[in-house]
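Private note to self, pasted from the team thread so I don't lose it. Backbone tokens:
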């Protein structure tokens, strides 16, 4: 489908991986293009998304296509959507409603075809209540929500994930000692699957035998 998807979960639970899988199975032939809304200054979010015309602002020495246009026919991933500035939220809402973009400095819109997947670790309804996130935008991007549980709530996956990371990093033959798994299962993994992968890599680096 072309439903907008909202992926919710704590840091390190695999939100981007889910977004990439949604794109891979969508049948859309275009690219997946991602923007981390928390990593870009507020005054640059609009030009990063929608592009800019030559002379639109200082330093714009040529026309530049934004990520939306680069994702035409594909999927646009907006990571940490909860950190998007309100002004950019309004422009994004207009894009979703009209299916066209207006690059910074342009006077006419351009038709686009993108499927939007958003991800955040924040409670968007709380942000709406606080006035820092638009309720109409939340309604538009929340066609289908996916909630990723933290690793501490799915300890039954720790062994499977540990074996997966051993294989991923080229050491599928390594065995896991009972005390290693007991420690792994008794730890709450505040940074979730990302932290588990780092722990496996660290254990492999210091291991002095074929058993962790």
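Design output:
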């Amino acid at each position: 489908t072309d439903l907008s998807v909202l992926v919710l979960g704590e840091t390190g639970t695999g939100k981007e991986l889910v977004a990439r899988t949604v794109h891979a199975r969508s049948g859309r032939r275009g690219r997946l293009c991602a923007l981390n809304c928390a990593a870009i200054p507020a005054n640059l979010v609009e030009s990063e998304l929608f592009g800019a015309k030559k002379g639109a602002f200082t330093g714009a020495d040529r026309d530049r296509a934004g990520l939306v246009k680069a994702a035409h026919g594909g999927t646009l991933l907006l990571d940490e959507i909860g950190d998007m500035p309100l002004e950019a939220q309004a422009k994004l809402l207009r894009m979703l409603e009209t299916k066209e973009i207006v690059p910074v400095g342009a006077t006419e819109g351009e038709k686009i075809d993108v499927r939007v997947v958003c991800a955040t670790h924040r409670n968007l309804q709380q942000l709406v209540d606080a006035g820092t996130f638009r309720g109409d935008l939340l309604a538009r991007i929340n066609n289908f929500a996916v909630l990723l549980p933290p690793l501490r709530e799915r300890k039954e996956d720790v062994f499977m994930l540990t074996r997966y990371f051993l294989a991923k990093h080229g050491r599928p033959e390594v065995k896991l000692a009972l005390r290693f798994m007991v420690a792994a299962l008794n730890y709450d993994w505040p940074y979730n699957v990302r932290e588990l992968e780092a722990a496996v890599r660290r254990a492999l680096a210091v291991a002095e035998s074929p058993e962790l």
